[in-house]
Design a protein that fits this description.
alpha+beta; Nucleoside Triphosphate Pyrophosphohydrolase; four-stranded mixed sheet; three-stranded antiparallel sheet; 4 helices; 28% helix; globular
Length: 174
């Protein structure tokens, strides 16, 4: 059964529900979340999306990115998806929300109200190959430069969220 996403307005009020593919075909505003997991060495865990993904396959993304589904508890969902995609769980703290719209490959559109979380983890993940074809720890300062110098390697939402994430991350280091 195809997942049912939560449609929202610009204030995050629920406006309805729709099948995942239709949401992305029609570019409907919906809830999403992005998880950024860091370690003590100043590195961010990135995942490379599986080539077979229906959009943005083979691009580098933040640690976990997904959608809460109709009827799910948000706090449980963020942890469940992290385990499903990367094979581990950790404490997560919400940092900020932002909205973006991007035209993607396969004539799909992401129009998301994205809730961004940070977590801390020190071990290596055990990613799900149906979701992730590679992963790495990357120095956050290097990533900042690489997003500017080689943006085509990365998913749109990582590029959109990173500047605000970076600001929060730097404040947490002080």
């Amino acid at each position: 059964m195809e997942p049912i996403l939560i449609l929202v307005d610009e204030h995050n009020n629920i406006t309805g529900y729709e099948k995942k593919l239709k949401v992305h075909q029609d570019g409907l505003l919906h809830r999403a979340f992005s998880i950024f997991v860091v370690n003590e060495e100043g590195q961010l865990m990135l995942q490379k999306r599986a080539i077979e993904k229906y959009h943005s396959g083979g691009l580098w993304a933040n640690t976990c990115c997904s959608h809460p589904l109709k009827g799910e508890n948000k706090e449980e969902t963020i942890h469940e998806r992290l385990v499903e995609e990367m094979g581990f769980d950790c404490g997560l703290e919400e940092l900020f929300k932002f909205t973006y719209r991007a035209e993607l490959d396969n004539d799909l559109v992401e129009y998301e109200l994205d809730q961004v979380y940070i977590g801390h983890y020190e071990m290596d993940p055990v990613p799900n190959p149906a979701e992730v074809c590679d992963w790495k720890w990357i120095d956050i300062e290097f990533l900042k430069e690489d997003l500017e110098n080689s943006p085509d390697k990365y998913v749109y939402w990582l590029k959109a969220a990173f500047p605000e994430f970076y600001g929060y991350y730097k404040k947490l280091q002080d």
